[in-house]
Amino acid sequence: MEMWITLIAYLLLMLWIGWYYKKKNDSVSDYVLGGRTLGAWFTAFAYGTSYFSAVIFVGYAGKFGWNYGLASTWIGLGNAILGSLLPWLILGRRSRIMSKSLEAKTMPEFFEKRYNSFNLKILSALIIFVFLIPYTASVYNGLSRLFEHAFGIPYKYCIIGMALITAFYVILGGYKATALSDFIQGIFMLAGITAVVIAVLNMKGGLFSAVELMSQIPDPSGATGKYSSILGPDPVNLFGVVILTSLGTWGLPQMVGKFYAVKDDQAIKTGTIVSTLFAVIVAGGCYFLGGFGRLFVENVDGLPAGGFDGIIPQMMEQLPTIVFAIVIVLVLSASMSTLSSLVLTSSSVLALDLIKPLWKGINEKKEIFIMRVLVGVFLLISVVLAIITLENPQTIISTLMSISWGALAGSFLAPYMYGLYWKGVTRAAVIACYISGIGITVLHMFLCTFGVKTGTFFGFDLASPINAGAFSMVFGLILVPVVSLLTPGRKKDAEYGAKVFECFKL
Questions:
Q1: Across all residues in the chain, what is the average pLDDT?
Q2: Over the range 417-455, which residues count as b (16 or more CB within 10 Å of their CB) and which as e?
Q3: Do the Cβ atoms of 469 and 405 come closer than 8 Å?
Q4: Cα angle value 390/166/149 (rounded, 5°)
Q5: What are the tens digits of pLDDT across the range 351-368?
Q6: Which residues of 166-185 are buried (b: 16+ CB within 10 A; e: fewer)?
Q7: Cα–Cα distance between 28 and 364 in angstroms, integer?
């Protein structure tokens, strides 16, 4: 009963937020960016709650906690430093200034105006729409698995219900509604992960007792102590996970878009601190919790009973009812905040970057209406994909997220970051990075689908979509400057870039 009461109260609050903001979106900028007036705390919480969802709590924490033990905590700390602190320091201020100067409301519009290319806008918009869908499906996947354990509700109905609630407050309230809901959801996440970690450790006699139990579990070679060690049994592939889940935020449209909405430089400074501390607690807590998974789930021939995505739900079933209720709200908060950010990003990209250029003379009211319709369309497509993937027992959450992040960040990270600091980035280099990001992701999917043996490279598992995604990001950072320097006529691109950079002199 406690779980139902907690859940219903939370959902009613989200619905009220959407209703409250339904008439407070007078322009496209209001609907997409909250009028660029959001303060530090709202922006920082929006960044953090968009970053961490059920994908992290259920999928990644479960799988990587199982694989790497307590060393998986490094992933959370990497998310805090490399995925939160550094993006705010390096991208935050310059993103706010340049996007405002260019009047760019979306990442594709930013690429168009930064590089003076309509084609870049169209290409990036298509990439975003296609590859945000598997990420959205992974969010549904993580939440539905936990709900099925908690309430006995078939996952299909969990997915549909979550989509309807999210659609309501995003369609009506836009960015302002999602920002307020993100702030509230962030508070639930901070309190929830703290309570859950304490409760789980207490079930095993406290921190030191739980760590001692972990030290007695043998790894695949039969040695003990690896799952409680600082670097774990496989530090090389652990590093690949840190890169994918941390560096990826630098090139994800739903993440960097938060910098477009922040109101001033002081908000950037405060937001940097708040966002980093949020990530330390939430991400660090999630992965630290997942590191104890082997104490709660049976090992069957090296794999967890019930699959990787069942580890966290099985751990949560053993908690007291009231703590489990907190977990439900925690995961629901994380998932709905991420989902609202994804659908708002995708719908705004489609409306502003694909439909608007083809519909001459469209006014702002029609643009907002189209975006609201596209929120529903995007949710419908992602719901169908989520149900299909959940029907397939071979599909796991971490795979869906890795495909999405690898393609998006592999395509956008380097052109976006270099574009903020270097006038000499060429359009040819941006297109080359798009091709490599998508090409590496799709080629890797093809090889794995048809069972092509890939082996290892310096200890990295080449069959892992996580390592493929991490490689696509790092490769882009090398590719863009090389192609820019080799591009014929690069002086023209540099001259245009110099005009764009005048915004930093004001």
A1: 81
A2: bbbbeeebbbbbbbbbbbebbbebbeebbeebeeeeeee
A3: yes
A4: 40
A5: 777 777 766 667 767 777
A6: bbbbbbbbbbbbbbbbbbbb
A7: 6
Sign of CA dihedral 217, 219, 224, 229: negative
Whether residue 148 is contained in a domain is answered as: yes
Convert 114-139 into a string of H (helix), E (strand) and C (coil).
Answer: HHCCHHHHHHHHHHHHHHHHHHHHHH
Is residue 230 in some structural domain? yes
**CA-CA distance, 256 to 247, in Å (whole number)?**
12
Residue 301, CA distances (Å) to 72, 234, 305, 367, 395 in order:
21, 18, 9, 55, 19
Residue 424 domain-assigned (yes or no): no
Angle at Cα 357 formed by Cα 356 and Cα 360, nearest 5°? 80
* Stretch 239-254: mean pLDDT: 87
When divided into structural domains, the chain yields a total of 1
Percent pLDDT > 70 in the chain is 82
274 against 220, higher pLDDT? 274
Residue 253 lies in a domain: yes
What does each C-alpha distance from 200 to 77, 174, 210, 230, 314 come to in angstroms?
20, 37, 9, 20, 12
Q: CATH number, domain at 298?
A: 1.20.1730.10
Distances (CA, A) of 90 to 84, 94, 206, 272, 477: 10, 8, 39, 10, 15
Given a contact cutoff of 8 angstroms between Cβ atoms, the answer to whether 265 and 487 are in contact is no
Beta-bridge partners for 457: 460
Tokens 């000499």 locate to 424
Domain residue limits at 371 = 2-15+39-390
How many CB atoms lie under 10 A from the CB of residue 218?
A: 12
Whether pLDDT at 242 is above 70: yes
Distance CA 421, CA 213 (A): 49
Whether pTM exceeds 0.70: yes
Could you report the per-residue pLDDT of 182-215, keeping only the tens digit for each? 777 788 788 888 888 888 888 888 889 999 999 9
**Among 341, 186, 179, which Cα is nearest to 278's?**
186
Token couple for 138:
């992974």
Of 118-132, 318-332, 451-465, 490-504, where does mean pLDDT reach its minimum?
A: 451-465
Binned at pLDDT 50, 70 and 90, residue 33 comes out as: low
CA angle 265, 267, 271 (to 5 degrees): 120
